[in-house]
Fold:
Amino acid sequence: MSFVVGDKVVYPMHGAGIIEAIEEKEVLGERDKYYIMHLPIGDMRIMLPMQSVQEIGLRQVADKEDIAKVMEILQGEKSKMSPNWNRRYRANLEKIRSGDIFEVAEVVRNLAIRDREKGLSTGERKMLDSSKQILISELALAQDSTPEEVEAMIDRALGMEEEA
Structure:
């Protein structure tokens, strides 16, 4: 899959951004073409080798139908999770790494519900925060919204607006 300057894309584990440039650079003696991507949340710039976007999992941001499905997932019931903290953490990490917006939404929903029911460990709290930021970054870009508007929308979907 190839992208062009201006494309809104998702970099798994990091969130969504915009391809600002395509440049040829020499890195470690190798000349390659790179996508120069700007991640608005955190204001980061990253270089991604064009030939490895497939294995990295770079993809276009969600469309309107995907966003509607994400909101349904966030409002849904908690899916079955291991009672074992370590297994649960690894399963959630795998979902986040997949770069699949629906899997990330599931992690956000499940951890938010677990937080309300039992509270979260420090590790799971960090995971909830980072997976929520990944989701916010993609939905904000996909809808041309601010991160604050999207976070409020996610919190409403999770039934958390009274805590926000």
